[in-house]
Amino acid sequence: MAPEIALGAGRHRGTDAAYENAVSWLQENRTRVLDTPNPALWRMVKRSARLTGDPRLQDLFDTYYKRYFSARKQGYGFLWFQEKGWAPVTYEQIESLDDYQQFFAYALTCDADLGRQPLIYAQNDPTYCDGHPLRSSCVTHQMMGLQILRERRCGDVDRHSEVIQTLQKRVVRQLTLDPRLLDQYIQRVLMLLDTGALSMVKPVWINRVINGSLGDGGWPERRVILDIPGKYDLILTRNFIGLGEVKSLFHATAQALLIFALLMENEKEVK
User: Fold this and answer.
1) 22 SS3 class
2) Where are the domains of the chain?
3) Dist. CA 74–CA 239, nearest whole Å
C-alpha cells in the first residue's frame, strides 16, 4: 500500500512511483497502444509529456501523431492537439456519434452552427446528465467538453466556469457514494484535478487510484469480484456484474498517468 498523500503541500508520496509504472506500461505495450487512435487519450499523453518534460512520453506521442496526422489533417481530430484552430464540420458528419462526442466536436471547432444543435446546446446545462442516470461517465464527459470550451475561450466562458463548478460538486458526491475503483472513478478524480478543483480531492481518492494498478503497472477499467475456475472471473463492470477478464488498458492508464502528471506539477508550484 502506498503511504497516505497530503494534498496541497509537499511531496505526494507514492505519486512518482505510480507515474513511473504508468510510463513503463505504455512503453512495454507501445505497439498495442499506438494501434489505439483515440485522440482524447493521446491528448492526455501529450499533456503529461508537457507537464513532466518526459522525453519517453514525448517520443511516444510524436510517433502516434506522425502515424495518424502528419501526412494529412483528416476531419477535426488534429484539433485535440492544438491550442486553437478550426476545421470544417457539418452536423450531418457527426450526428451518428454519441452526444458527448458531438459536444467535443463543437468544443474543438467552436463552430456556431454546431453549437446551436439542440443535443449539443443542451450539454451546456448543468442538469443535462439528470436525464441519463445510468451513464456513469456523463458528468465527466460533459466537464471535458466544457473545459475545452473554456480553454479555447469559446462562448460564454464565465458561464462555462459556473457550470463546471456545479459539476465538480456532483463529481465529489459520485466519488463519495460510488467507491468502486473502475474507469469512471479514475476519470472523476482526473476531471476534478483538470478543472482546478485540487482542494476538493480527498487524499484517499488519490491513494485508491495509486493502489489500483495491476502487477504489470497499468490500470484496468473493471475489477475482479471473485476468481472462478476457467478463463473468466466474476467481474464488476461499468454498471453490472458479469463474467470476463480484467487487464490493464490504455483508456484507464492514460487517465491515471495525467492524474500523476498534474499532481507532480502541483508539487513544483507549492515548493
Assistant:
1) helix
2) 15-270
3) 34
